[in-house]
Amino acid sequence: MIGHYARFMKPLPLVTFVSLIIAASFIAAGKAAAHCDTLDGPVVETAKMALKQGDVTPVLKWVNKDGEKEIREAFAAALKVRSLGEPARMLADTYFFETLVRIHRAGEGIPFTGLKPAGTIDPGFVAADKALMEGSIEELSAKLAKSAQEGIRKRFAEVLEKKKHADESVEAGRAYVAAYIEYAHYIEALNTLTSRDADEQHHLHATDVHKQ
Which residues span the domain enclosing 206? Predict the structure, then answer.
């Protein structure tokens, strides 16, 4: 039945549903951004520390073995240019940040679309990092579970109410179908998220980003 109606509506991206769940607890929907390609994200923060210390080792964990050689070369070049003055340092740092993030994302199978400004990290990622820093997932887990439950109940109530009037007119029928499709896709996305292992979810995320 879900498949029948889904043919008439373009499936919403999986990451959209992730954002909806997280946004219900942290911010309004629509402000979600990337994580590893922001200037205050963990990849660039590690790069800043590495450049300051003159040691490339800390950033190597963010790239796979195939990208290590290019990162080492870019790091060495950046260190040389940084010594030429403040304008040169800024250019060298930006060059290295872009190179590192590009190779990191390539390793995930995701295209690099440029560095994003600080302060644009998806709040879900911020919450995930905060939980890691605090060493506990309980608070975040409870918030996400509550958001998901509220999302399910809200959509279920709407589609159930519209179903009662679906046969009263064409408009009422269409309203029911629209509510049903939103409800069905929401459940489908949550089920996909909770029934797949980490490797499968990473593949789904990378594939979905390519489609956007």
Answer: 2-32+123-211
